[in-house]
Design goal:
This protein is an alpha+beta fold. It is 53% helix and 13% strand. It is built from five helices and three strands. It has a three-stranded antiparallel sheet with strand order 2-1-3, sandwiched between helices. 15% of the residues are buried.
Length: 164
Amino acid sequence: MRDVDAQFLRGLFDEEGSLYTRGRTALYRLHGVEGLLYVGISVSPLTRVRTHLREQPWGPSVIAIRIDYPDDPEAAEREAVFAERPKYNVVFNGRNPPPPPDPASRLRTELAVERRRLEQFEATVPVSPTHLRLIERGIRAKRARIAKLTEEVRAVEDVARADG
């Protein structure tokens, strides 16, 4: 590795070995083989993830990590847990979790989840013609759901603008 590369890589991390984020709060998702395990927020996401891996009984099940930097991390965490239902989150993930702040926000969250699932679905490689037909059917269903959610978001936002 060249010195420039090493210097660049060192610049990505702070003194604690966590990602350097200029003080921004990260939204992180921990995935296991069975799906989404946990969603959280932290200003030191890698440090927080290491803590989960060491201290939580489900830590060894984590096989993938996704880190995002939303504008409103607290709201993004609430919406992600509410919409995506991670297996080990307790807050916002009860039998009757509190509703999101407004209908447009709930629909935008659901729309984002459906778009992400569609991207994952479209990336699936078929194993046989039967699998291909099932995947194509699933893609068509997701596209229809996304179109419907997009219409609902527009309608709710139009009503909100008219009332506002």
